[in-house]
Records
---
Amino acid sequence: MAILDIVTFPDPSLRLKAKPVKKFDKELQTLIDDMFDTMRNEPGVGLAAPQIGQSLQLVVIEYAEEPEDEDAPAPKPKKYVLVNPEVVKRSEEMVEGMEGCLSVPGLIGKVNRHEEITVKALNRHGKPQKIKAEGWMARIFQHELDHLNGVLYTDIASEIYEPINEEAAESDE
Ligand code: NI
């Protein structure tokens, strides 16, 4: 268990195209666990390996959807490890939403994303998985996958703001 240093803009390592993961060894398992610890410590809902200075196609995500009913118990967070991910389907429908990024502290921005995407990836043990994500989860997936291609949300945001309070920056990815 370790908290890793997060690489921030304008560090050039955030701009590299990440390399595929080839070995599903003990070292990778430790890295994945450390990435979850680092993300939760911030807190954030997603973290890509380039954000901790590793040029690897590896993403961790942990996010609980808001309950539809205020009085409903908070749903359990969904947790994903995506290794060598590839988007295989994108909805035509696009949605605008606010994003933040642990590598771009102090800013949030409005970004247009596909409402739904389907991703093929390997899990932490190298087993293939296919995940359909929609809404906020689809947004997190797209944001994190962009990191693997050296793209930051600030490159594609229609507007960028400095949030006036901490609360607005809560959903940093
Ligand atoms: Ni980010």
---
Amino acid sequence: MVKSTSSFICQECGAVHPKWMGKCEACGAWNTIVEEAAREAVPKGISAGKGKKLAFSSLSDAGEEAPRIPTLVAELDRVLGGGLVEGSAILIGGDPGIGKSTLLLQAVAATAKQGFGSAYISGEESVQQIRLRAKRLGLVDAPVQLAAANSVRDILGSLDNSPAPRVAVIDSVQTLYVDSIESAPGTVTQVRASASELIRMAKRRNTCLLLVGHVTKDGQIAGPRVLEHMVDTVLYFEGERGHPFRILRAVKNRFGGTEEIGVFEMGDQGLSEVSNPSALFMAQRGEQVSGSVVFAGMEGSRPMLVEIQALVAPSFMATPRRAVVGWDTNRLAMILAVLDARCGVRFHDKEVYLNVAGGFKIGEPAADLAVAAALLSALLNRPAPQDAVFFGEIGLSGEVRPVARTDARLKEAQKLGFSRAIHAASGKEKQPDGMKHLQDMVRLFRREQELVS
Ligand code: TYD
Ligand code: MG
């Protein structure tokens, strides 16, 4: 039998299949399987007794905390948990054009200006293009070592010397190739091999390595997910095209938490940090329209106010449309069902559209009450109270449950000039805006309606 010399690898999740298929059975992605030359298998002859003895040590002598290099981009430092850790590998993923190169150029210029040797190696842009960008960003005087390269051998040849740069940015990992592997740059095999060579160098030289990885939908190049397990920290840079806001999120961090986010605004001068995102998300809020409600949310340890908008329109279809941007479709279906079954408010002949303003994405169940308020406001065509924020989780029986960090949410709302907070009733004391059941919310809207008319 002829031994097969190629394997079929999903570019999305890295699963290996014996033959080509249209759909990856491991991750369910379509059209992502690519034939690649097989790598040499594990060398034969590995058996006990041949390896050298490991030097085991105890947990207690782990040493001090790893030293950090601040990037002076406060939002980035916050997400990293206090700056770049020496000898760590960080992967920054995101859609093409979202601003990864811009962010890293700004960060690396800041570390270079502080005197840490910093290199920026681009496989996508020419040195001239990067210079132009640096000029636009006002960073030309930063002593960054700049180069354009694609060969991992060349990159290692330049970085793996003493003194090695303290910070090295590689933009992007999908443009690199290891010349001993036949696959094209961007395939899973190349991306993994290139990353692992660079990470090994980073550990050896105690360099902080920042790898850029593009997220792709069509599977033509391997996504950053195939590298997530190899690096210490995985950050995703997200945002909606057409909105200037960008959000940096940690999904894995060996040196800090993953609950913090960084908020940036893309402008003519590159990315600027947004230290008070609530004010920014609230700035474009219109006056007195029905269906618009302010949700007092939390992102990590940070309270954040965002506007939730609902639109309810008559439907003539057997299954009316439900469209959601920035929130969970299943959760919307649940709230609609609870409103129907527990409060007698029907949407069965209505189309429902829900949108989180500013291109923001909400993951918290605490938004339930705000969504319900937006839906009721849109259905009854009555503006929600303009001076109030909403938050609370809704259970299947229609009960409103308190959520974590109430104090922080209230404080943020107060800071931005909201005098009322409509949330779960606590304790026995009588609160006019305390909600025990979703019916209280329906009553509130009916009452507002009476007060106005
Ligand atoms: P870029 O950092 O090249 O994205 P990525 O590396 O993630 O592919 O950013 C590209 C976009 O950012 C591009 O469409 C132009 C925009 N941009 C600005 O709006 N202002 C700026 O100062 C810069 C440098 C880029
Ligand atoms: Mg780029």
---
Amino acid sequence: MVNPNLTDYSKTYKAFDWEKESQYFNGPSAGLGLNIAHEAVDRHANGGLGDTTAIRFVRKDQKRENISYVKLQELTSRFANVLDRLGIAKGETVYSLLGRVPELYITALGSLKRLAVFCPLFSVFGPEPIFQRLSKGEASLLVTNKLFYEKKVEKLIDRLPHLRYIFLIDVEEDLSKKVLSFDRWMKKASSSFSIPFTSPEDPALLHFTSGTTGMPKGALHVHKAVYTHYLTGKLVLDFHKNDVFWCTADPGWVTGTSYGIISPLVNGVTSIVDEQEFDAMRWYQILEKEKVNIWYTAPTAIRRLMRTEMDPKKEFDLSKLRLVLSVGEPLHAAEVIWAQQAFGVPVLDNWWQTETGGIMIANYRSMEVAPGSMGKPLPGIEAAVAEIDGDGIELITDTEAQGHLVLKKGFPSMFRAYLHEQERYNKCFIGDWYITGDLARRDRKGYFWFVGRADDIIKTSGHMVGPFEVESSLMKHPSVAEAAVIGKPEASVGEMVKAFVVLKEGVKENSETKLDIIGFARKELGPAVAPKEIAFVQRLPKTRSGKILRRLLKARELGLPEGDLSTLEPS
Ligand code: AMP
């Protein structure tokens, strides 16, 4: 068993200096600046790892496709040249709407080489969420496939004036001057590309995350975020030479980009990408067959595996597995304990969010795991629990007291903007602190424990769903007068989306109407975001200023205390 990279948490934490970590990067000393794709691909391809598998794709039919660091360099250079040829300028946004196929990864890294900003979209999104995101990010170019193009994108084109090109990965010829064949253009392009000088503060990645009240926010990250991708790979994921790593997240969620693409490559290990969605047998087989050493997944997956009642340690050869990690939702103590027994290795929960770009609080291999806790702050990160009152912030020094989880600003992977929403961005900070929007407490030993989200966001099967986004879509149904959406706890998905709907006069409250609205929402939003349950109500509880009180709907649904109702509009 290899020794952990982080042997003494307290010592490393105290002595930590971000600038020392910069010595790992090879771009700055070569006069190239700091570019994520250079650190992830070219330096290894030109260094000693050229023939090492960078990414191994397990395709839907279980076929494996290995892409070495040299091959990845060549493919991403081709794509960067394609962008160049089409006149995509520095800072323009390139989107992908694809499953976990090689073209997504080539698009991501090729865009970073060309200094375009890359934004991945979940392929399960329906046309409306796609439109919102493409339009807000002023997408210049989209890479997708024929099916998604015809079903979801084609009808949006007239409303997307910025979108100049659409690449389809599965057509041989260009369909028009705008809709092009990915393969054809890739073949024509040169396989060598010199990355332009990249400032650490140049924008790199755009990730959409749902807001409390509004439409999705676009969190913008810069190339300097690679410090966190690298450091957390070393200290939390504990990457060692020749490791095989599998992050199950889709790049449509920030985890699937920071850890499904960047962090393992920057650290020079081999990354597994499975094209298929969750399937317990298939997943165990991948762990066994690919000899996975480090596995990064989510609580929903662990819960689903728990329910199968399979005994992975007995039924599969998992002798190469060293570490299991989880992120995205609270991993309850019972789940940690089950997984540690089932896999026979440490199971480490960690916390972060789209805005932080990488892991911020974690359990570490060399540190005693407190089951149910998110762990301790990454070296270089100052985390605290605080009381917030208007513009005032006071750090809570008492242990066990609950408050807002806040992070000292200034770390490399801190998001630099909410696209076109400066005021909203500014509101995330008070003095030196970034307000995460989560509630937490810290125990005597310095471990942080997740309490809940400070707002109404719904977390369902790893997706963050903003009620407003769902409600606006429901409102488009001809029978719907008003709608409010909450998350209702459900073991298998974390929370399920439940909608309370006020029907227009004369519309019958029956199961036919319900099914029709659900079907409509699924088409608009995609199955992951659409409500699973609908209840008809006569009116929605609102504040005097007209805001829907979702927390009240939720409390009533769950039979919990209704809390402060002073602002409730009288009925
Ligand atoms: P996202 O930006 O979609 O990655 O979601 C981030 C949010 O997910 C956090 O603000 C938390 O509310 C939640 N989250 C992430 N990791 C954890 C964790 N380990 N425990 C509890 N909640 C988590």
---
Amino acid sequence: MCATDHGGQHHPIAVAVDDTAGPSAPPSREMIEELVSANHILFDQGVVDAFGHISVRHDKRPDRFLLARNMAPSQVTAEDIVEFTLDGEAVNAGGRKVYLERFIHAEIFRRRTDVAAIVHSHSHSIVPLSVVKGMRLRAMFHMAGFVGQGAPVFEIREAGGDATDLLISNGHLGRALAENFDGHDIVLMRGHGSTVVGGSIKQAVYRAVYAELNARYQLQAMQLGEVTYLTEGESRSCVAHIEAQVHRPWEMWLEQARARRR
Ligand code: MN
């Protein structure tokens, strides 16, 4: 999230909400633990800092998802995971503050039934590519085929006018963002960051890490000359073959994140 209060807007970046729907069958313990690990990895890999978040669809209730309460990802524990409805309403927050931008997750899970996990971040090399006219993040190396032939850039002014704080702070903005995911697994958000989706927590984390790397390499390569990008066929082939191995970096990143937390 980015916190600004210009333009006459003063909504807080974290809000306490009432639990409006009852809790469902508890999600699997393994899923919670994996979500906690994902928070730590994303911080350790530099994808998120104090802001940014990852969610997972509830394994027993596809109309629910799990997301940490409002806090820095590096500090998340299993006790901090909160269940939400697809309207972005907390089920068991118990008065704890939740992320204002939970509507990103709610509306993408609603629209993309194939998506199991979502990462929203402001990772450093992505932001420049979100603000230059005519510029698109585009797959330019084999680890980032999922980026495809040009990631859409969500322009919040089209849905929210020209004086928002750029945050996806309600269902209306969440739905406008989610529409960009038809046929795409990563969407840049102008002047803000990006959101990436996957079929599992591990895949979403993998994509968030390699989207940042693709952006960094693209910025570097563009300074040297004309860039040769992956073709659509190469992109698809790389996704099919390389993303079958997302468990390999996951284990390494997890070990590294744990070592550095000690
Ligand atoms: Mn944000």
